[in-house]
From TrEMBL:
Residues 620-650, 652-680 form the 4Fe-4S ferredoxin-type domain. This is Formate dehydrogenase major subunit. One of its GO terms (molecular function) is oxidoreductase activity. Residues 689-745 form the 4Fe-4S Mo/W bis-MGD-type domain. Coiled coil: none annotated. Keywords: Iron, Iron-sulfur, Metal-binding, Oxidoreductase. InterPro entries: 2Fe-2S-bd_N, 2Fe-2S_ferredoxin-like_sf, 2Fe-2S_ferredoxin-type, 4Fe4S_Fe-S-bd, 4Fe4S_Fe_S_CS, DPD_II, FAD/NAD-bd_sf, FAD/NAD-binding_dom. Residues 3-81 form the 2Fe-2S ferredoxin-type domain. Pfam families: Fer2_4 (PF13510), Fer4 (PF00037), Fer4_20 (PF14691), Molybdop_Fe4S4 (PF04879), Molybdopterin (PF00384), Pyr_redox_2 (PF07992). PANTHER family: GLUTAMATE SYNTHASE [NADPH] SMALL CHAIN (PTHR42783), GLUTAMATE SYNTHASE [NADPH] SMALL CHAIN-RELATED (PTHR42783:SF3). SMART domains: Molybdop_Fe4S4.
């Protein structure tokens, strides 16, 4: 039992293992100590010093990551001085950290929508996911996509290249896609919290608050004075800009969450604030908008024919009779003025003129609306202010205005208009529409006594906190125009969400808490940012919004802007420069900045010149931005100590050298965005993903990896947890090739059937029927042994089991096989003959602790993780490596001995080496299985000769092995598969003997056999019977008891006997006329038989996820779910049960292998287990040792065969 010491941390007395660090002890007790450079995978770095703690009796703070606990130690992990020290350390890091946490467009957006994120999703074709992302901040994207003034575009860095990205119209595209498909994107409403909020006002702020409150589980009732919800969206924005069917659809979506509505009720007339409280509402959100129009303050504005723009637009929207004069003057320069002018034109006005007292530059209306108005014939008189309205018969007849010139800027920042004396001008009018501004109609205390406690500003708005939206009085919140004055719809929507967040926090903790501010660093605004990096971008024209022709729109209220098509949306989204850091959502530095409330000082950080960055950012798979590097050195130490590649040189910032194997470990350990995955030449945009652990299928290691998924797309792949089999190590294949296989290869998405010489799309039913009929026809014509199956060594155990069962039970053929079967079967048979079974195959991680390694072939090429583990053993434990043939690898010089042995000579070499060892020390008693195997190995060694050049080295190796136990035998199983059956058997038998001697009494770390296979499930395929001479459970087909057991479980009369010829021989000779092939791209592993044997096949069925070489000859093609699209079981090359997770929906009409086989067996009338669970139940009866365990626990706990068989 390990010794412990007593320590006190933050007043808590605990027991901690002797030798553990303060950080270990604190984390074990759930005590938070901030860290940045620390990772449990590496020795303490102490570069960031953020983990410093105060130790009683010590004058200086101690690094918790490297200071060991001592008995009686008293530790303090927090306090004002410690927090201030950590804050100062973080501020110092900013001196060398230059970049943008979040894209400037998102920072500028009043709702802080993740614009960069949804543009990335549009590029990926994930339109509904883009809508989902938008709705995290604004609930009405189709509406806002039509009416937003898009301030985000003014901050777009694309200005420095050509024109800003057309952000708003991309947003509208995905929102319209949602509506057209009818697949509403709505949050799941949790269980009712019991809290109820009254929302007064059904405009954008009120609707937004209702949406987010319901998404949090709170009850909501909207009180609306008008007949319908929408507020200014319905009554202030014309139909040609915002069709009401769009607005209605989005409102219906909000109400579908369970929002209650009372229309036709007015605050102050029908209810008061106190009434709402008495009714049981726990909080009130006020959002009645700004409906009162400001007066012109000139003579004649009370004449008939003079009205406000708000009233004019509302009457149109409400369907009331609206009289329009022939000559209409509109006063104002905002969107209300533009809307009124364009609406008047549509209602029959012959001439519409807008008068605005400032210049065009100062007009608050969006420039697109101004241009559209002019295109339709609206005249705009700038620097003109009305002075009086003249009437005839009580009706407006003339408008007098005066010319203006711009003086000094006023409080708004716009230059103040100054009248030009004597410039008065008259114009004939018969209608004047005033649109110079609005303000809220705030109730008085006489109208509602509760208003006595509510703060009123001098702008006739209700005061409150702009972050929490709380008025400061009881539980009354405010938002939208009632709080801000007449502002934008997007700002009102943002207010509603902010209020919902604050209300939720109050309901949870009993006090108003606004949404936390997130730390953001910026490279600067458009004026101050370095322009050189933007010179490399190509000029790409901005996509223009298609519009209804002027002649077709000016006489009606049909929507003018027609919307982007898919191609336009894609092209426009591609123009995004991805300014925001792709690591913003998992940046450890940013997390700590938020935790310690560090403010970004408004001064540019030191930056590395653009050309120097470009010179070193040359890695094909990893993007390097040294401007974001904080010099923690995690990457270089990890590469040196954990990966042991020495691929990173570090001087001021990391640089990759030629030793890099692209494992991606540095990317996962980088606490900022300095190192990121690269796709299509730029860093991956991680967005907000979900993480799905699974196991890699790129080789037999079966490394645990994390699939980072957004919607239906794999975004990137990261190292898994520090758990078996790989303990957080990966390689380039698992990290990058697995992604490329998924998204760069040509996928097979639909069933195909060959008709008249061409493959044509078909239904699954038709394809399955054709497959069954075709193979049955071949069997009837040539006999059962004319049909066979070549499975994928990446297939799931479930699918492979069903495939061999269908072949044996349904088609009565013994020909079931897969690439690498020869080597895998030789390994399994040799392990069985040794008597130790999989006890001779240690866990992969043990290889890193070996002191003596024999590397046969290039197993590190087949399974790169083995190369990492061998290098780690040499570096950290001084292991000596003996290379027996194979390609050169990056192994330590001075600790590696190379023997030039050709693959054909490996069996003879290994048998001779084993024979010398046996002759020196012996192995067990004469009756032990291993002794019998050893005798067989000696006989083989005597029969084969070894080149005389190897006698000396072999003699020395034999003496070294005999001197004491120890020895890891790492063998390239894929290379051995190319040898003859006799050679494969001899090699693995010799390895079994050598491994038994190396293990000694079983206490030698790292000793044993480490096979390397390309197939992620080669051992699993054998385990479930995917071999012509082997039944499920590794039982030989000539074992009568095994045959009896299988026939009982399958309820079969008999099983086909062992075939007279090997599968490959039968294929090459033309005996196999009907063939079922999985993933034909792997047929190359079969050599000549795989590449040429298909020529003799008369009927070919292939199950493919990407287009393989057999596609051109196939009669039926069945689309196969790819990595990440199906669940199932693997058995890796160390004999460990591993689970595959389904992280993505299958592309197209692809099906998991086991589901497709189920359909085939059903069509063929062959009995089959009806579910994965039923398959597992059959296995429990057929697989020795496994029947005592629940299959789910075998996979969940990653049990090894050595522990159950």
């Amino acid at each position: 039992m390990s010794k412990t010491v007593t320590v006190t941390i933050d007043g808590r007395t605990i027991q901690a293992p002797q030798g553990s660090t303060i950080l270990d002890a604190a984390r074990r007790e759930g005590i938070h100590v901030p860290t940045l450079c620390y990772t449990h995978l590496l020795p303490p770095l102490e570069n960031c010093r953020l983990c410093v703690v105060a130790v009683e009796g010590e004058r200086q703070y101690k690094a918790a990551c490297s200071t060991s606990v001592a008995d009686g130690m008293v530790i303090r992990t927090t306090g004002p001085e410690l927090d201030q020290t950590r804050k100062l350390l973080l501020e110092l890091l900013l001196d060398t950290h230059y970049g943008d946490c979040v894209a400037p467009c998102s920072v500028t957006c009043p709702a802080n929508v993740d614009i960069q994120g949804y543009l990335a999703l549009i590029r990926h074709g994930e339109y509904l996911e883009a809508v989902k992302l938008i709705k995290e901040k604004i609930p009405m994207p189709a509406t806002i996509g039509r009416v937003c003034p898009h301030p985000c575009e003014s901050a777009c860095r694309r200005h420095l290249v050509d024109e800003p990205v057309n952000i708003n119209h991309c947003k509208r595209f995905v929102a319209d896609f949602e509506m057209k498909t009818g697949r509403r994107v709505l949050p799941e409403v949790p269980e009712d919290t019991g809290h109820h909020v009254a929302v007064v006002g059904g405009g954008p702020a009120g609707l937004s608050a209702a949406y987010y409150l319901r998404a949090l589980g709170h009850g909501v009732t909207i009180f609306e004075a008008r007949d319908k919800l929408g507020g200014m969206l319905r009554y202030g924005i014309p139909e040609y800009r915002l069709p009401k069917k769009i607005l209605d659809w989005e409102i219906e979506g909000i109400l579908s969450l369970g929002v209650r509505v009372r229309t036709g009720v007015t605050w102050g007339r029908d209810f008061t604030l106190d009434d709402l409280k008495k009714e049981g509402f726990g909080a009130i959100f006020l959002a009645i908008g700004a409906w009162a129009s400001r007066k012109l303050g000139i003579v004649g504005e009370d004449l008939e024919g003079v009205e406000s723009g708000v009233d004019f637009l509302e009457n149109i929207a409400a369907g009331k009779p609206v009289r329009v004069g022939r000559r209409v003057a509109v006063i104002g320069g905002g969107n209300v003025a533009i809307d009124a002018a364009r609406s008047a034109l549509r209602l029959g006005a012959e001439k519409v003129t807008i008068l605005y007292r400032r210049s065009r530059k100062e007009m608050p209306a969006s420039h697109e609306e101004i241009e559209a108005a002019e295109a339709e014939g609206v005249e705009i008189h700038l620097l003109a202010a009305p002075t009086r309205i003249l009437g005839e018969g009580g009706r407006a007849a003339q408008l007098e205005f005066i010319r203006m010139e711009l003086g000094e800027p006023d409080a708004s920042g716009r230059r103040r208009p100054v009248p030009i004396e004597g410039s008065e001008t008259l114009m004939d009018v018969d209608q004047v529409i005033s649109a110079i501004g609005q303000y809220p109609m705030v109730l008085t205390k006489e109208q509602d006594p509760g208003m006595e406690r509510i703060p009123i500003t001098r702008w006739s708005t209700i005061g409150g906190d702009p972050r929490s939206m709380h008025t400061g009085q009881e539980m009354i919140f405010v938002g939208g125009d009632l709080f801000r004055g007449p502002m934008t719809v997007v700002a009102a929507l943002a207010d509603g969400r902010k209020a919902a967040y604050s209300l939720n926090r109050f309901f949870q903790v009993g006090e108003v808490q606004p949404e936390p501010l997130h730390f953001n660093i910026s490279k600067g605004d458009l004026e101050s940012i370095d322009r050189e990096p933007f010179e490399v971008y190509k000029v790409i024209p901005r996509e223009r919004m298609p519009e209804l022709e002027v002649a077709k729109r000016v006489t009606n209220f049909t929507e003018v802007e027609l919307g982007f098509d898919e191609a336009q949306a894609h092209r426009e989204a591609e123009r995004c420069l991805v300014c925001g850091c792709s690591a913003a959502f998992d940046c450890r530095l940013r997390e700590l900045m938020n935790e310690f409330q560090v403010d970004w000082r408004d001064q540019p950080s030191k930056k590395i010149h653009f050309q120097r960055v470009a010179a070193i950012d040359t890695h094909p798979a990893i993007a390097l931005d040294p401007n974001k590097c904080i010099r923690c050195e995690r990457c270089v130490v990890a590469c040196r100590v954990f990966q042991c590649s020495d691929a990173i040189d570090f001087k001021d910032w990391p640089r990759f050298n030629e030793k890099c194997v692209s494992c991606g470990l540095c990317v996962d350990l980088c606490p900022t965005g300095a190192l990121m995955e690269k796709r299509q030449g730029r860093a991956v945009e991680r967005i907000h993903w979900r993480s799905v652990p699974t196991h890699c299928i790129q080789c037999g290691c079966g490394c645990e990896v994390d699939l980072k998924v957004k919607g239906g797309r794999l975004v990137w792949i990261a190292d898994g947890r520090d758990v078996p089999p790989n303990h957080a190590s990966t390689c380039s294949r698992g990290r990058f090739r697995a992604y490329d296989d998924q998204w760069k290869e040509k996928r097979v998405l639909k069933p195909l059937v060959r008709e008249n010489g061409e493959l044509r799309e078909a239904s699954w039913g038709k394809a399955v029927d054709r497959a069954v009929q075709g193979l049955r026809a071949v069997s009837e014509k040539y006999g059962p042994e004319s049909v066979g199956a070549l499975a994928s060594f990446h297939g799931t155990c479930e699918g492979l089991y069903l495939l061999q069962k269908w072949m044996r039970l349904g088609l009565k053929t013994p020909y079931v096989d897969f690439p690498e079967r020869g080597a895998a079967e030789a390994l399994v048979r040799s392990l069985a003959l040794s008597g130790a079974g999989f006890g001779l195959v240690p866990p992969l991680s043990s290889l890193a602790k070996a002191r003596r390694i024999f590397c046969i072939g290039a197993p590190h090429g087949t399974s790169p993780l083995l190369g990492t583990l061998m290098r780690r053993a040499a570096r950290n434990h001084g292991a000596r490596i003996v290379r027996v043939g194979g390609e050169n690898g990056s192994f330590p010089e001075g600790r590696t001995q190379r023997l030039d042995v050709e693959p054909a000579q490996w069996p003879a070499f290994l048998c001779a080496l084993a024979a010398r060892l046996i002759q020196r020390q012996g192995l067990g008693s004469a009756t032990d299985p291993i002794q019998k195997l050893a005798e067989e190995v000696i006989r083989t060694a005597d029969a084969w000769s070894v080149p005389s050049s190897l006698e000396g080295p072999m003699q020395a190796l034999g003496e070294e092995l005999a001197a004491g136990p120890g020895g890891a035998f790492v063998v390239d199983g894929t290379a051995l598969n190319g040898l003859s059956p006799k050679g494969r058997a001899a090699a693995f038998q010799a390895l079994a003997v050598l491994a038994t001697a190396a293990k000694g009494n079983g206490q030698v770390e790292g000793a044993g056999i480490y096979p390397a296979f390309w197939g992620s499930n080669s051992l699993g395929a054998l385990l479930v019977g995917m071999a012509p001479g082997m039944l499920p459970g590794w039982r030989p087909l000539d074992d009568a008891e095994a045959v009896k057991k299988v026939t009982e479980v399958w309820e079969a009369e008999a099983l086909p006997s062992k075939p007279s010829a090997d599968t490959l021989e039968a294929l090459e000779s033309g005996r196999l006329k009907g063939l079922f092939v999985q993933e034909s791209r792997h047929l190359g592993a079969l050599g000549k038989a795989g590449s040429e044997g298909l020529r003799n096949v008369e009927f070919l069925v292939v199950q493919e996820n990407v287009a393989g070489p057999a596609l051109d000859r196939a009669d039926v093609v069945l689309p196969l779910a790819a990595f990440g699209e199906q669940e199932g079981t693997l058995v890796n090359q160390e004999g460990r049960f591993l689970g595959l997770s389904r992280a993505l929906g299958a592309a197209g009409e692809c099906l998991p292998d086991w589901e497709a086989l189920s359909r085939i067996m059903a069509a063929d009338g062959t009995p089959f287990p009806q579910s994965i669970e039923a398959v597992h139940a059959e296995w429990k009866e057929l697989l020795p040792g496994c029947g005592e365990h629940e299959w789910a626990s075998l996979v969940r706990e990653k049990v090894r065969l050595a522990d159950v068989c």
